[in-house]
Amino acid sequence: MMLFELEAALEFSNDIEGQKGEIEEVLVNADKELFKRGAPKGKENEASQLRGWSVKGRVLNVSIVSGRYVRAPDALLRLRNQLNLLGTKIKAGIRKVEIKKLEVKGVELGREPKQPIKIAFYVDKIEVKGDKADIKFSPSLTVDVIEGGGVDRIIELVVEKAERQEYEGKAEIKKLLWESKTKEMLFDKDPSSELEGINWIRRTHAKGQFVYGRNFTSLVNALREILVEELYKPLGFREMIFPKFEPWDVPKKSGHAKSIYPDAYYVMVPKVSSPKEWEETMDYFRITGEIHKESIMRKVEPVGILSYAQCPPFWQFLEGRVVKGESLPLKVYDWSGPTYRNEAGGTHGIARVEEFHRAETLFIGSPEEVIKIEKEVEEKLTFILDELLDLEVRKYSVIPWWMSQEGEKKLSDKANEGVGTVDFEAYLPYRGEREKSEWLEIQNISVIGEKYPKAFSVKSSRGELWSGCGGGSFERWICTFLAQKGFDKEKWPAEVVKRVKIEDEVKFA
Amino acid sequence: MMLFELEAALEFSNDIEGQKGEIEEVLVNADKELFKRGAPKGKENEASQLRGWSVKGRVLNVSIVSGRYVRAPDALLRLRNQLNLLGTKIKAGIRKVEIKKLEVKGVELGREPKQPIKIAFYVDKIEVKGDKADIKFSPSLTVDVIEGGGVDRIIELVVEKAERQEYEGKAEIKKLLWESKTKEMLFDKDPSSELEGINWIRRTHAKGQFVYGRNFTSLVNALREILVEELYKPLGFREMIFPKFEPWDVPKKSGHAKSIYPDAYYVMVPKVSSPKEWEETMDYFRITGEIHKESIMRKVEPVGILSYAQCPPFWQFLEGRVVKGESLPLKVYDWSGPTYRNEAGGTHGIARVEEFHRAETLFIGSPEEVIKIEKEVEEKLTFILDELLDLEVRKYSVIPWWMSQEGEKKLSDKANEGVGTVDFEAYLPYRGEREKSEWLEIQNISVIGEKYPKAFSVKSSRGELWSGCGGGSFERWICTFLAQKGFDKEKWPAEVVKRVKIEDEVKFA
To answer: By CB atoms within 10 Å of each CB, which of A127, A169, B28, B376 scores lowest?
Structure first.
């Protein structure tokens, strides 16, 4: 059973030694009533209890213990408010509340963690005993953090970190849904080196970034046209322009702020924009020809990240609103700029770049509509990849390992029925034999469920609101296309040939 | 006359008091020959002279003066190399060179500066006497900085800062080249507020950024189609994809690193990408729901900026190469993503945004070709804006104020004949009467000359290589279009009507 032990000092604006009577009355009543209010019937003994108190000068010290209902930190907040109501009577208000001690004992982890669990803020020590943990909070814990729900979040985080240790490194579970026929491969080299050799693309000074020449861009546009004509138009999707810089509000709401940090491209802007303020940095470049990074770091502030998953910034379009039924389902796509990913594991040609170009497909509606649209998009994508482009591909359904472990529980969870992702993977002959080499993930399509509407407070005037989305980078589509079909345009599928214009690229002496 | 006074201490790896004879020989010869080599005939008295020297322990102290030819800092570098050749003979090499004193007297500023001139690095004091300055360098000046040309660059910078004081706040000089007929205005409100009101666009949480809905995007695409059909295709331009993140190399070469800092969006990536490294930042968000900016600033490094002028990152495609004549002129355009500008002066609706979408036009060839293409593009743009879109616009030629002041000198400068910019400005009726209100700059087109090919070391196999470029944001084109034509599609020009699809935008309850 989880146990909270709390000691706090409440400092008043005046000496309260003369008001002990009034204070005692509040404390005794609180212990009887306020500390129990809301606890399930029969569980009042698991709610907060006042264990002791004392007054010295302006300070009231209290000691509170509790089980899981009306936890001690919550009881402290209630007590503070009640004492403040006393203000006019005792001519003193609470000026400061200091948490002298907070310990939570017997937090159930659901498993025995293999490594120590650490929390970087507000926690001094986490002691693990079998599948339980005792959390000793540090003096840096403030009432503000408690009021913001921080104690609960820390407990959740401890449980989650224990859980994560178990799943770490465990891959997602993939289930083969479908595979195209085996197709004739017309090429066996890595198309990226080939593309560089014929000047269709060129590496920049940045990691995992290319400039794309006219022929390559023509191929990109051919694929775009195919998607527009064969998928977006027939299914009633229309184009929008999603922002590509994401202010912090977006990853905070989308949940990416939980974990995106190692993979993000960060955006900073000047704290002060006057040229005077930047003279030092300008002088340094003029004198040395180098960038004065140190002064830049002093003069900028982080305002967000570059778009990573492409659809999250869209949600600002609907945020906080109730969408009328007649506007649903909403089907849109975006192709207005690159998204970014810092690839810790390294980049590889156009198969893994850091600046990449993606058509993002997004649909919003009732759960039934979203599930239906996902199926339609999936079918069109299959048709385009398999028949029009004649590529050798496979479809997988993907679930994270932890979900597969809790499978039965999740699957019986009505609210999430239908949520899931389908991945398209393509064979790259230059990587080796079909069954022995890693295939390239080139496209996915997901039913996300209620996640984004909830996160951005978007409602429907006619009930439940879900969303789905999908994306695939043109770098990867073209990598696959050229890896399987080669560079001889005569042998490309007609649908591509009729849409591209291949001419001599720039030649160098 | 400019005068250099230098004192330096050269520290050897061993005691050199016993080698005074050998050292004296080198010094005397250097003073006679090495310190004068390269000075114009008859100007040897303005080259470096050894004023004195002494040896103590491992240290040789020298004092050198000079006029403008073979300046004292350069003489010191020559002397160091010469002494190092002595190494095997005296069994000692130079381990360290310390600049004890460097003063440059009588730097000609060309004008009397109104305010003190300051340099943030390597300089202690700048004393201005009339139109001349004495620069006293600080002990932080190293031989490395001298070798990198830092002393010359500091002198140039002092002169430039004096010059800039004079021009500061002085506008560019505009000359009206052409104006369209006065046209009937069909609207008198600010289209941005209107667009927000009907949900065609929506402000995001970022400054000067919008999400663009389906109808607005359809208008953008109509303009793109018009540009492609009426300008790019007939003139033989083809599309490329330019990078949108610019690693430092790009602004360093393009010269933007001289001054872009107050206006830039900076990009940072993690120094270390492992999730472990970021646990602190992740924990903080999980506990408080806020971003831990302080730890982000510690864990990232600045790697460049977001594209600002759109064409500079293209140059990495040709960098360091000799382009064959048959590939010239090269005519390309880019429409692959937004560019960014931190607007210190504030943003305004879609007339001034920070994330904006631009078609960038770029052409490269001989000076004659570039000048000819600029004219052709200018004519097509005029046709599109004036006739197809039926907008009230004006064309100006624009020269910076300083250039107009040095007009005669510049104009007689053969190498730059033809270099210049044409701006298109549009009337916005909601801002007031034609002659009393500020018009909106919506497009420009320039002959840049040899600047970019030089900066990125690009050559042509058939001689001189120039470039030209132009851009205009669709936010501004559409702002102008709606400000003059209003929202009644019936009254829009046929060329737009046939290309747009306007339907109900999303409706909110």
So the answer is: A169
